[in-house]
Amino acid sequence: MYISTILSFLRCTLLFALAPRFFQEMGCKPSKPLQTVYPGPTTGNQQQQQGPPLSVTAPQAEGTANGTSTDWPFITRSGPTLLENDRPFRFITFNVPNLLLIEDRPGQQGTFLIPDTFEQHDALYTISQLGGRVARTYTLGVGEKYHITGPRTYNEEAFVALDHALAIARNVRVRLIIPLINNHWGGDDGGTSDPSTCVFGNYAALTKLRGKKPSAFWNDAELVEDFKHLISFVMNRVNTVNGIRYGDDPTILAWQLGNELGGWTGNNPPASWTIAMTQHIKSLAPRTLVADGSIGGKDSSAKLSREALASSAGPDIFVNHYYHGHEDLKRLPKDAALIGKKHGKVFIVGEFGFANTRMYGSLYEDMLRNPLISGSLMWSLRSHSKDGGFLVHSEEGGKFWSYHAPGFVFPPNTQPPPHGFGSDELEVMNQVRHYALAIQGLNPQTVRPPIPFPPPTLLPDIGTNWIRFRGSAWAASYNIYRGRQSENGANGRSDERNIVWDPQPLATGVSDAKCSGSTIFQDKTAVPGVGYYYAVQGVGTGGDLTAVGPAVGPVWCCNK
After folding, report:
1. Does the N-terminal or the C-terminal CB of the chain have fewer CB atoms within 10 Å?
2. What is the pTM of this model?
């Protein structure tokens, strides 16, 4: 998300130049990867199991969905209203920018990397237990190792990651909004002041593949056909995980033509381009909705294309983004009236944030009262990291941080909060979940708290002084168990590996609110020369327990 040319350029320049040193100083570091790849959720692993809350299907294997769509309907629209099985479909949720490619891997900032399926599942299960029902990804990437590597040439590894995201989303019943291409915030000069060199997935990178200027993207016949080729490739792709063709997958609430195309003050795409691309998608995915790729900025009536709004062949959904505090409260009903009432199209708040819970509460209350607002997506949610702890992301030089479930509160002497976590995080997460349920007509006070899942998994390279693990989505804390192997037969509480476990947990109330790769727990009572075994259990906000994760050991004290 970039709200202006200047902020975008500064953000990219400073992030690339300073991030490695910054994260090293803050204790975030790369970790040895866990060798096993998490295949998706499975059933039967939770203690105190009573089934997931809301109308979410039970966790299941990622590849078990059949190749048809009869068990999950497409989202449709009737005028300005989204429908699921002929009932209004409204949502309050988050953008999840790291779902397709990750930009927040410590030590590798400036490079977008393929996410681990554990991280994708963590993010999407978080949304499902939030009651969010929908998540919006960031755009496809352009360049080596990204989705689009050359003219009409695509990277299978990157698209397999999208396969996993779609398969997991389907299984946890989360719909996705997927924008195809990013805006270009520069001109045609291509100079060092042009932020196109670092704004991820922007259309200038596509035109560069052909040696053409960014301004040619909308009307150059070859470039238009290149974009249509991308659309055809995506719609016709058959998911390698569950066998469902993208164009036939109801998991996708909408294909969005782009992200902030035209920016906040620039010219939006020509209506002819918007309508042509919408119709090309519709020809290949006739049951899937299409969202416009531009935003209304501070004056939607002047900036949004009237022709695209008025045309029945144009997009089904139009959006605006809100990052101007209480000023947004005045624009919201005007945008809803323009898009929903005047033109009969669906209106969604595609992004918003950088304010406070008082402002967010006012925004949410206005949404609840206004049926012309179908949904909203806050910026932004980050998942657990495959290396332990969480992925973290800052905006405006660390003034605002990404959010993490279930939200964390820190002791009074922890000021400021640990690197990567905002002081308002717990309040924001509780607020979003409250309104995510309320907009569905549910009583937030009676809906079961989120169930933590899957069981936490210790990383294989731990020591007694640096215990790290992959956390459970929606775990508020963890219990740490310690044992040692019996040499003369099992005595006391032992298991099939002949490990005798201490009668009480080594520690309870352990938090993994740390940035990726950080030490989560230290065993300060370990004795030199003793080989210990450790295992971890997640504890949910409502007291639900995960299964105890697999034991790791022997771990010898006290290596450094």
Report:
1. C
2. 0.89
